[in-house]
Amino acid sequence: MLYDFVVIGAGIAGCSISYFLRDKAVLLVDKVGICEKASNAAGAFLFPKVGYDTKYTRFVNKALLFSFDLYESLGIDTHKTGVLILPRDENDIEKFEKYKEGFRLPYEPKDGGFFFYDGGFVDSQNSCKVLTKDIPFKKINITSIQKEDYYILNGSIKTKNIILARGWEEIIDIEYIKIRPVWGQRIELKTSITPKYNYHKNCSVSKNRDGIVRIGATHKRVKEELTPNREEAEYLLKKANEILEIDGTVHSMKGGMRAGSIDYFPIVGPVIDTEKSLERYSEVMKGKIPDELFYVDGLYVINGGGGRGFSNYPYVAKMLADYIIENRTLPKEIDTKRIF
Q1: I need a surface site. Which of 59, 259, 285, 308 has the fewest CB within 10 A?
Q2: pLDDT value of residue 246
Q3: Distance CA 19, CA 74 (A)
Q4: Is 177 exposed, middle or buried (0-12, 13-18, 19+ CB in 10 A)?
Q5: Which residues of 94-129 are buried (b: 16+ CB within 10 A; e: fewer)?
Q6: Does pLDDT of 230 surpass 80?
Q7: 3-class DSSP state for residue 102?
Q8: What are the residue ranges of helices labelled H in 21-163?
Q9: 70-83 pLDDT per residue, tens
Q10: Between vectors from CA 204 to CA 200 and to CA 205, what angle results, nearest 5°?
Q11: Are 87 and 93 in contact (CB under 8 A)?
Q12: Alpha-carbon distance 23 to 135, whole Å?
């Protein structure tokens, strides 16, 4: 079979773009399974970005509302009970007073922080499986990609287009795209405490759901993947206790490497043919913006969503699908050429 698209990577990025291309002949592949790596370890918290009224803050909060709507339209429980975002230190307290001047989402001051009604979380694996319920999937590690009239993966899978969604473990080295891996861990706590809503400070703490509270954070830049461990769990518990008194026993620990970009925005769009572009416009090396760029035919990327993958990726996946299918323009802040 000749596919229209093969999506490499079945985390929330790959599952999101697969969903928006579901009317095409799409194959989703991953070496371990659907939402089995970093996305499975995500807290999958959905909460606003508190900060100055910048392009990034507006982007995150638009993505948040889009993703809430999408998940709810698919019957995915978003546990939307609101989130109390608290200042981390004395400096943050001063900043918070300035931040509120630019808030565009409904909120109210509460307990020294800001309570936003648009706050919740989703179950990571369930969300990915709902997004891909009609998408063919193969558990396979892609180790070779050849290009003829179409792409041939591992010598047997044929496709017109490839979408790279492998996070920090990209299969193709695209030299101008720099991904920053950041280790994150999530623990689930069996507890009798009953938080009224979700919290965020130096970590995120969920409302109690069936006797389980989840605590998560993305916080450690490392070069190699770690293993979920008790030391990290104790770190999360310590941070959670700065928000409210925590008691109970650790029910599970999950960890994974989030993939972030150097400017925090996701990296989305066609892959630039670096060699051809520099051959035609060598002055790019001196900082000049070229008249045009050349792209690798049929090769796209969706990456760099960072610790907000479950709100960022559905939003930008829709934009990527619209770019591919309807030739719509990608926003400059996410387009791959911004970092070339």
Answers
A1: 285
A2: 86
A3: 11
A4: buried
A5: ebbeebeeebebebeeeeebbbbebbbbbbbbebbb
A6: yes
A7: helix
A8: 38-41, 55-73, 90-99, 124-131
A9: 999 999 999 999 99
A10: 100
A11: yes
A12: 10
Place of tokens 């920090």: 168
Locus of tokens 């000749």: 2
pLDDT of 214 strictly over 80? yes
Helix (H), strand (E) counts: the chain: 8, 18
Q: Are 86 and 107 in contact (CB under 8 A)?
A: no
- Single-letter amino acid, residue 77: D
In the block, which residue shows the tokens 């479950």? Answer: 310
pTM for the predicted model, two decimal places: 0.95
pLDDT tens figures, 114-169:
999 999 999 999 999 999 999 999 999 999 999 989 999 999 999 999 999 999 98
The CB density around residue 130, as the number of other CB atoms within 10 Å, is 16
Residue 181 pairs in a beta bridge with 259
- Confirm if 43 and 216 have CB atoms less than 8 A apart: yes
Contact at 8 Å (CB) between 139 and 30?
A: yes
